[in-house]
Amino acid sequence: MNISGRTTLVGVLGYPAGRSLSPQMHNAAIEHLGLDWCYLPFSVAPENLEQALRALPALGIVGVNVTIPLKERALRAMDEVVPPANLVAAVNTVHCRDGKLIGYNTDVEGFTRSLTERGEDLSGCTALVLGAGGAARAAVVALAQMGAARVWVAARRRAQGARTAELARQAAPGAQGAAIVWEDAALRSAVAAADAVVNATPIGMHPDVDAPAPIPEDWLRRGMLVYDMIYTPAVTRLLAAARERGCRPVGGLRMLVLQGAAAFTAWTGRAAPDEVMERALRQALEG
Ligand code: NAP
């Protein structure tokens, strides 16, 4: 990589940023397209986030991704917020335009495209989302916008579950949202009535790969969509069980690629080479 005074800079703000795989993914896309760009990681403590974001236009940085734990805080520092980032209440991509900070949430697009490109049609379905944090909020908005009729949110904290479920109606007035208590009987009947289950908790994520799946494996039914937003490991216990039982399993890796691809396009105005990005991401994960 030949960095000069003319090189356009983009990057990721996280805390710590060292664990992010976005530099590998974006720099592979940059190299593939032969752009004089460079994608850098920046570790920014939460209390310094606003200062760091405000400095981006002054430094000539064109845009950044924002990752854990800064996505919610970043929203407050934006000059403009592009829907649905306002609904999700989190910004994962910032574009600096004319000195202004424009905030996007490309997790919703990443989740949606990871399903539509497989030909999944969720219109009229009942979807159960496990967890009520940032990833769950993106999933609820995406599911409602994809035409799900009912989006249920199972959460340990009832108020958080209700707030996240409420996003379904806000995202698509025809969609109903409801909170489900995180206990066996309620979860079991929700799974029995659902066409799709989305794990938006970290249960089963590396290094806890042998932890029991978030729902008992024998609750899964042939034909149901089972989406695990976790991408390390690529095949979680939940996905392995879904595969064994004849469900439609979908892992989180493709969503990660496609949220990055959407950010790349927002900054560069170019179609993102998502297959190149996915290959780089898989290599980084294997490493
Ligand atoms: P988060 O904001 O911390 O939310 C996690 C949610 O899971 C919370 O509602 C939490 O409930 C719940 N939870 C955690 N442990 C639980 C348990 N043992 N039992 C029941 N509920 C539990 O995290 P996040 O940012 O939403 O991320 C969630 C997962 O999605 C992570 O694995 C992350 O890697 C993945 N993710 C993937 C992508 C992608 O592109 N594929 C994008 C974003 C996130 P409490 O509040 O009660 O703890």
What would you say this structure looks like, in words?
It is a single chain. With 287 residues, the chain is of the alpha/beta class. Helices cover 40% and strands 20% of the residues. A six-stranded mixed beta sheet has the order 2-1-3-5-6-4, sandwiched between helices. A six-stranded parallel beta sheet has the order 9-8-7-10-11-12, sandwiched between helices. α9 (237-244) links the parallel β11 (225-228) and β12. α5 (106-116) crosses α6. The two termini are 21 Å apart. The mean pLDDT is 97. The structure holds NADP nicotinamide-adenine-dinucleotide phosphate (NAP). Residues 107, 110, 131-136, 155-157, 160, 182, 200-203, 205, 229-231, 252, 255-256, 259 line the site of NADP nicotinamide-adenine-dinucleotide phosphate.
Topology:
Layout: E1 8-14, H1 22-33, E2 37-43, H2 49-59, E3 63-66, H3 71-75, E4 80-81, H4 85-88, E5 93-97, E6 100-104, H5 106-116, E7 126-130, H6 134-145, E8 150-155, H7 158-171, E9 176-181, H8 184-193, E10 196-199, E11 225-228, H9 237-244, E12 248-250, H10 253-268, H11 274-286
Parallel strand pairs: 1-2, 1-3, 4-6, 7-8, 7-10, 8-9, 10-11, 11-12
Antiparallel strand pairs: 3-5, 5-6
Helix pairs in contact: 1-11, 5-6, 5-10, 6-7, 10-11
The chain binds NADP nicotinamide-adenine-dinucleotide phosphate.
- The pLDDT mean sits at 97
The total of beta strands comes to 12
The number of helical segments is 11
Rg on CA atoms, Å: 19 Å
Strand composition percent: 15-25%
Strand order of the largest sheet: 2-1-3-5-6-4
Order of helices and strands: EHEHEHEHEEHEHEHEHEEHEHH
Coarse morphology: globular
> Sheet with the most strands?
6 strands, mixed
